[in-house]
């Protein structure tokens, strides 16, 4: 009986020109794009209705902007730039306009982009006057022979290549300024408690570091790409740079495996080589995207770090694991269906 059922199933698959496994994957939606707007202590009880609506609207707008590019047959890189611009231009996210403040009261932005079709990549770090750092990262990839540029040099390169420059005051927002004041207050409290002069190495406060943005995409040509943009962590000191602009840590894409963008406590993502680690688990240990990305987040958790990531593989499977209370995130399927989520 069991044999004959199996036989009928196989026959049906053959008649429909499907293998049993492709029959299974065809029943699932095939994704073309995923975004995140940061992971952290994001709890429904701390959210007002209007703020929640504002996040959902902006995440939806970002997904739609990216999807429009994919639909028109543009590259996954174009989709990433379009989706990330929407979030960089919004004060809601810790990237572009809404970037957090450094200890010295400045905004220092980082971004990276990677093309999975040829493993080309571009990144900028510690820039203070580039409106859309993701576009500067793309210019580094497309118009220079380098992968990463920092500070003044990156700003000069961006300006020479037609990237929009703004006065640093453009990045000032009340919400982020107050976030820095709270962090400075707590630094003072801790200084009183701590006399071993190692204060520079104290971990940052968990609740002041979410809102980085990222996007991963798979275009009609089958090319994967990933991009991440951030203001880093509130109260960062000494030119600190996190994982976002570091290829293989916060951002990675390879057509053979997966495209990844991370968010969270950057130091742990750098130490875990998080984004590349997912790709390596898929390539060498033959894991699926869900297991590989979850394992990396679990490993980061064991080290004491927190955060999340978005991943899309070459077959359009998406995974979005995180070990924080929430992560702003969303997906679009090939037929344009948008889904947005915030909490666990
Ligand atoms: N990963 C970013 C950084 O460490 C921050 C974040 O994603 O919230 O700079």
UniProtKB/TrEMBL annotation:
<keyword id="KW-0378">Hydrolase</keyword>
<dbReference type="GO" id="GO:0006508">
    <property type="term" value="P:proteolysis"/>
</dbReference>
<feature type="signal peptide">
    <location>
        <begin position="1"/>
        <end position="23"/>
    </location>
</feature>
<dbReference type="GO" id="GO:0008233">
    <property type="term" value="F:peptidase activity"/>
</dbReference>
<feature type="binding site">
    <location>
        <begin position="240"/>
        <end position="243"/>
    </location>
    <ligand>
        <name>substrate</name>
    </ligand>
</feature>
<feature type="active site" description="Nucleophile">
    <location>
        <position position="212"/>
    </location>
</feature>
<keyword id="KW-0732">Signal</keyword>
<dbReference type="GO" id="GO:0016811">
    <property type="term" value="F:hydrolase activity, acting on carbon-nitrogen (but not peptide) bonds, in linear amides"/>
</dbReference>
<keyword id="KW-0068">Autocatalytic cleavage</keyword>
<keyword id="KW-0645">Protease</keyword>
<dbReference type="Pfam" id="PF01112">
    <property type="entry name" value="Asparaginase_2"/>
</dbReference>
<feature type="site" description="Cleavage; by autolysis">
    <location>
        <begin position="211"/>
        <end position="212"/>
    </location>
</feature>
<dbReference type="InterPro" id="IPR029055">
    <property type="entry name" value="Ntn_hydrolases_N"/>
</dbReference>
<protein>
    <recommendedName>
        <fullName>Isoaspartyl peptidase</fullName>
    </recommendedName>
</protein>
<feature type="binding site">
    <location>
        <begin position="263"/>
        <end position="266"/>
    </location>
    <ligand>
        <name>substrate</name>
    </ligand>
</feature>
<dbReference type="InterPro" id="IPR000246">
    <property type="entry name" value="Peptidase_T2"/>
</dbReference>
């Amino acid at each position: 009986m069991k044999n004959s059922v199996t036989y009928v199933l196989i026959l049906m698959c053959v008649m429909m020109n499907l293998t049993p496994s492709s029959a299974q994957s065809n029943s699932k939606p095939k994704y073309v794009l995923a975004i995140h707007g940061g992971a952290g202590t994001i709890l429904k009880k701390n959210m007002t209705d209007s703020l929640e609506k504002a996040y959902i609207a902006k995440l939806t707008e970002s997904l739609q902007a990216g999807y429009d590019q994919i639909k028109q047959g543009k590259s996954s890189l174009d989709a990433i730039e379009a989706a990330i611009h929407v979030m960089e231009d919004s004060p809601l996210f810790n990237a572009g306009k809404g970037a957090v403040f450094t200890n010295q009261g400045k905004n220092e932005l980082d971004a990276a982009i990677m093309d999975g079709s040829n493993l080309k990549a571009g990144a900028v770090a510690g820039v203070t006057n580039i409106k859309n750092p993701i576009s500067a990262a793309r210019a580094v990839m497309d118009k220079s022979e380098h992968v990463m540029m920092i500070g003044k040099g990156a700003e000069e390169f961006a300006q020479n290549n037609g990237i929009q420059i703004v006065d640093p005051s453009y990045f000032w927002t009340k919400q982020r300024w107050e976030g820095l004041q709270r962090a400075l207050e707590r630094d003072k409290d801790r200084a009183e408690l701590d006399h071993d002069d190692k204060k520079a190495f104290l971990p940052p406060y968990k609740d002041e570091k979410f809102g980085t943005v990222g996007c991963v995409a798979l275009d009609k040509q089958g090319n994967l790409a990933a991009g991440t943009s951030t203001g880093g962590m509130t109260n960062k000191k000494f030119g600190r740079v996190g994982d976002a602009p570091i290829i293989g840590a916060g951002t990675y894409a390879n057509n053979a495996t997966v495209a990844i963008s991370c968010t969270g406590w950057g130091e742990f993502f750098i130490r875990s080589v998080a984004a590349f680690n997912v790709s390596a688990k898929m390539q060498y240990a033959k894991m699926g995207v869900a297991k590989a990305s979850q394992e990396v987040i679990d490993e980061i958790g064991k080290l004491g770090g927190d955060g999340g990531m978005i991943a899309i593989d070459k077959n359009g499977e998406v995974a979005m694991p995180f070990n924080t209370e929430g992560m702003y995130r969303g997906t679009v399927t090939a037929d344009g269906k948008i889904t947005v989520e915030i909490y666990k």
